[in-house]
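Retro notes - structure team

What went well: the batch runner handled both jobs without manual restarts.
What didn't: labels got mixed up in the shared folder, which is why I'm recording both outputs here explicitly, each with its sequence directly above its tokens.

Job 1
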Amino acid sequence: MDETSQQKTSAHVSTARTRPKKRDRSASEERLLNAAEDIFSKHGFKGATTRMIADKAKLNESLIGRYFDGKMGLLFALIEKHIEDVPLDILPYPPQETVREELHKLIDSMYYKHCQKDSEFFKIVISQCLTDAKFLKRIREIIPKKIHPDVKMRLENLATQGKIRTDVDLELFIQTLDTYFHGVMLFEKILMGYPEDKLNQGMRFVVDTYATAIEIKK
């Protein structure tokens, strides 16, 4: 075997050795994240320990420090994972013909279903925000704070079509909606535990009222 062949063989062996390690790490990280979410939900962030998480994942506890820099790093990795799971690149429904229909579709969109589905985890995040100022500051930097930007664009298009009163401040309108929706998720869903049908009923009543206030009646 010549020198060139030996170099190619060595490179191939090196790559073959690296790939399984990357796959193993990815699988281990996923197991630790799943275990952490389960443990955090059952015991709270303060009550959970890295030993409990490692035991749940059936992995060495030292991997938590190596991959996530500890328990807090695990929590932030989970938060980022939840954010990535939310489809923020495009709204999951086509533009609607009226403000009322657009807002109804927004309620039904995957973003709000996602928030409802993961309410137990969000309790942990909110609790930590209320007791840890540094955690709250970092959360404000990474969590999306506004309704999907396409909603504003669609409402502006409806206004251009003459379907929204010209004196309506759409920026303020969307900001008000955003505050209301987040309040619903925090208070009614997470704190009060209202069922999904009651949440949807209440949100539809509110957006119908908003729509009536800003739409041009024909």
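Job 2
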Amino acid sequence: MIDKKSPIPVYFQLKEDIQRKITKGVWEVGQCIDSERELSQTYEVSRMTIRQALGELVQEGVLIRQKGKGTFVCDPKVKQKDMMSFSEIINKSGRTLENKVLEFKIIDTPQELIDIFPFEKVYKINRNRIVDNECIANEIVFIPVDYCGFINEEKLTGSLFEILNEFGYSIDHSKSTIKAVIMDKRYKGIFGVTEESPLLQTLSKIINRNGKVIFVEEATYRSDKYMLEVNISRREGFLK
């Protein structure tokens, strides 16, 4: 199972094999996997190597350690690390997505958005993003009516990025703030749950290649179902 002569590190081979077993259902969601000692004997590698492989899988949200009990398989999270639409992420993961429109109307541009959108009217779009029959995210989007021409509720069951592409807008990047939110009664209703759990909320300006803000989005995600990976690099010459 492990080729110790391979240029691929042993811990990485081990990590891939454990992930493969989870995918095949050898260990199912919520199930405790073999102990470090058992894995060490099975794969004939050191416990330090086992610990390194398991540590990376824990960081990636594949496994979770419970003190005194063992290491368990996590319910898979939606993981976003690139500038992709939510629809693209789900499609690439092979899961099913349903967009449920909760609110769709034309409103006067909110005062806090006047500096961003100097227009009289904007669309307000409130949607739940349902993955494999479970609500993972709620998104509230504001986009100038002048940018989109005609949009109806039926179109919004698909990808907003694709709708914008139809109108000639190519999304380049976003500027976002991120914060943790406590699940209150309103969010319990939105997500259809009874127990409290942490939420992750982003407020984003979605920008095209010309530096124009196309829409503003407030997105709230179940943090037990969604992972946002942020890569930060220091620009050369920024600090001296």
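One thing worth noting from job 2: The chain has two domains: 10-73, 78-228.
We'll revisit the folder naming next retro.
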